[in-house]
């Protein structure tokens, strides 16, 4: 078999298995949403049937391919699912957001809450709500849980029901990182050498925001990853030199619809970026309508179908409910009753500046996570151990793309300008393929409030990716390799910090193990829920917070009871302190009476 034939089969396997993972995510949350609309609750039946349906469809779509290709595609998809779930289960979300409203939402959905028909506080106050009423007491988390899009929470609750571990539910980011690697590699392997395609696919998957948040329920990195998947899929529509496999005509619409469904229901800003991307690519196709008529109809049709499913079905518990109850589908970030979540975290020096200058200063500054953060420009490619240590946090505010990223972006822009000058005339037929993703990202920087904060522009690595593809197809292999190393080094530094934090947490022992052990030894665990009881001095906001503590405690085989802080402190003395980790987060164990 020739090398070209091998590369083509690798491309087919990679593209098909990557698309299958995206479709799986969309199918799972869509099917669970249908159950909710019909008055039911998240069910493990849907969770078990969804991968079976997607894998069967994958086998069918590849029906004309050799058996070896079909087997390989199914095996890779299964391996990606298993790896993502195992990694998520063995790691602990130590973030504030993850252990407050994210896990509260996942826990409520797993326990039977139907967000289409009841606010979480109403359900928590019912007989089915159990201890969740106490969890929500004196906290505004119910606002976010009711209003925000719920794709990650539906995904997480589905997995948590099957595995019994709430940590397994955060597998979505790693799963989509693998999907992006596979989709990008599969597409690019038909346009360049296989090793170049694999390298650029790895750079895409190692998006620094996704690497930062991969062990958590944070969803910014996931959004950036799915945006990049959308860029690849849209590029296949406008690339005049791409020779798609025979099965792609059937798979492409499903892949695009699935991407829209997921992207719009990860975050509100996901809907914005999906709209910007779709409109930018559609506008270009319409410029040459006669030549692109079929592509225009394909993109418009899939966009409308994806939007309808995203907003009316999966979005029934957020967009549609917000529209009915508040008169605004994007409540509480826009319109009446808006909650301002940016001003408090905005650097004083940004006041009065335009969005582009804010964004540029943030990218080129030393990382800062103070409140408010400080934006100080730095020499590119320089950093200190203290700056790198800030990336143990999951949403660094200034310079949050990594300690090397400002320099990487400068190099990428300079190389991009050189390539544009050098090849624009001779490669005019393909120029739009490179410029459309950059144009969409630039519009997003201006349109999205807070784009200077990395979590709101998590797909910024697209600039480097476009330049890498241009370098690869122009056969500037040394430059392609050098830029890839720089981008990967930036992500690797962040990844090393996150892995180190997980190692520390594993050394200290998981909270659920500590609580279970204490329960066996003492009798009953009581965890404060009305207030965040942190006895560390000073309190560490990155410690495992009260929400994770409570939810893990509730998993201790019924030996846990949630109490308010006043109830806890009013109990007779004699309890013992169970230390969770080196940051000093403390859980109170009351002995020896049983839970009642």
> Which structural class matches the secondary elements?
mainly alpha
Report helical residue fraction.
55-70%
Report the span from N to C terminus.
70 Å
Q: Please tally the β strands and state the result.
A: 4
**What Rg is obtained from the alpha carbons, in whole angstroms?**
24 Å
The largest sheet is: 4 strands, mixed
Query: Approximately how much beta-strand content do the residues carry?
Result: under 5%
Low-pLDDT regions = 508-512, 521-596
Report the average pLDDT across residues.
Answer: 85
Spatial shape: globular
- SSE topology string: HHHHHHHHHHHHHHHHHHHHHHHEHEHEE
Strands across the major sheet, in which order?
2-1-4-3
Number of domains: 3
Count of alpha and pi helical runs:
25
List the helices and strands and how they pair.
Layout: H1 3-37, H2 44-61, H3 67-90, H4 96-111, H5 120-124, H6 132-136, H7 141-147, H8 151-163, H9 172-188, H10 194-205, H11 208-213, H12 220-238, H13 248-264, H14 268-287, H15 289-313, H16 319-326, H17 355-363, H18 385-389, H19 405-423, H20 431-447, H21 462-473, H22 477-508, H23 511-522, E1 524-528, H24 546-554, E2 560-563, H25 565-570, E3 576-579, E4 586-590
Parallel strand pairs: 1-2
Antiparallel strand pairs: 1-4, 3-4
List its traits.
3 domains; globular; 62% helix; 596 residues; disordered C terminus
Structure description:
The chain has helices spanning 3-37, 44-61, 67-90, 96-111, 120-124, 132-136, 141-147, 151-163, 172-188, 194-205, 208-213, 220-238, 248-264, 268-287, 289-313, 319-326, 355-363, 385-389, 405-423, 431-447, 462-473, 477-508, 511-522, 546-554, 565-570, and strands at 524-528, 560-563, 576-579, 586-590. By secondary structure, it is mainly alpha-helical. It folds into three domains: 3-326, no CATH class; 343-505, no CATH class; 509-590, no CATH class. It has a four-stranded mixed beta sheet with strand order 2-1-4-3. It has 25 helices and four strands.
């Amino acid at each position: 078999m020739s090398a070209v034939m091998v590369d083509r089969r690798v491309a087919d396997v990679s593209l098909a298995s990557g698309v299958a993972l995206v479709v799986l995510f969309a199918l799972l949350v869509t099917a669970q949403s249908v159950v909710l609309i019909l008055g039911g609750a998240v069910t493990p039946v849907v969770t078990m049937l969804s991968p079976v349906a997607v894998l069967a469809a994958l086998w069918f779509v590849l029906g004309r391919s050799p058996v070896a290709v079909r087997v390989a595609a199914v095996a890779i998809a299964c391996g990606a699912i298993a790896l993502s779930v195992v990694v998520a289960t063995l790691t602990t979300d130590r973030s504030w957001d993850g252990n407050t409203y994210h896990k509260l939402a996942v826990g409520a959905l797993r326990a039977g809450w139907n967000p289409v028909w009841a606010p979480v506080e109403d359900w928590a106050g019912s007989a089915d709500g159990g201890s969740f009423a106490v969890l929500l007491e004196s906290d505004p988390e119910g606002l976010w849980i009711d209003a925000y899009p719920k794709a990650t929470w539906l995904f997480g609750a589905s997995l948590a029901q099957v595995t019994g571990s709430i940590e397994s539910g955060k597998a979505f980011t790693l799963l989509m990182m693998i999907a992006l690697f596979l989709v990008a590699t599969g597409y690019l392997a038909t346009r360049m050498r296989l090793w170049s395609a694999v390298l650029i696919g790895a750079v895409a998957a190692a998006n620094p925001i996704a690497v930062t948040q991969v062990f958590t329920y944070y969803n910014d990195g996931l959004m950036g990853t799915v945006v990049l998947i959308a860029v690849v899929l849209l590029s296949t529509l406008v690339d005049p030199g791409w020779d798609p496999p025979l099965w792609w005509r059937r798979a492409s619409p499903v892949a695009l619809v699935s991407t829209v469904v997921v992207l719009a229901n990860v975050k509100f800003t996901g809907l914005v970026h999906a709209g910007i991307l779709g409109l930018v690519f559609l506008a270009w196709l319409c410029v040459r309508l006669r030549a692109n008529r079929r592509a225009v109809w394909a993109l418009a049709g899939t966009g409308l179908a994806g939007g309808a499913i995203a907003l009316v079905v999966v979005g029934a518990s957020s967009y549609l409910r917000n529209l009915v109850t508040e008169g605004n589908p994007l409540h509480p970030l826009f319109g009446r009753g808006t909650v301002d979540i940016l001003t408090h975290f905005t650097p004083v020096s940004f006041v009065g500046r335009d969005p582009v200058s804010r964004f540029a200063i943030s990218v080129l500054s030393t990382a800062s996570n103070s409140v408010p953060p400080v934006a100080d420009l730095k020499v590119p490619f320089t950093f200190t151990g203290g700056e790198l240590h800030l990336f143990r946090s999951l949403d660094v505010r200034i310079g949050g793309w990594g300690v090397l990223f400002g320099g990487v972006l400068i190099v990428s822009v300079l190389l991009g300008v050189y390539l544009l000058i050098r090849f624009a005339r001779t490669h005019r037929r393909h120029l739009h393929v490179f410029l459309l993703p950059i144009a969409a990202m630039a519009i997003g920087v201006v349109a999205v409030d807070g784009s200077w904060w990395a979590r709101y522009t998590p797909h910024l690595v697209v600039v480097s990716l476009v330049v890498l593809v241009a370098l690869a197809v122009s056969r500037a292999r040394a430059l392609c390799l050098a830029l890839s190393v720089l981008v990967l080094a930036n992500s690797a530094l962040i990844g090393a910090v996150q892995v180190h934090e997980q190692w520390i947490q594993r050394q200290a022992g998981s909270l659920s193990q500590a609580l279970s052990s204490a329960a066996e030894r003492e009798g009953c665990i009581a965890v404060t829920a009305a207030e965040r009881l942190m006895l560390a001095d000073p309190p560490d906001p990155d410690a495992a917070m009260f929400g994770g503590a409570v939810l893990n405690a509730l998993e201790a085989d019924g030996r846990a009871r949630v109490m308010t802080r006043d109830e806890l402190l009013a109990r007779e003395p004699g309890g013992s302190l169970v230390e969770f980790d080196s940051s000093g987060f403390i859980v109170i164990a009351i002995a020896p009476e049983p839970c009642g």
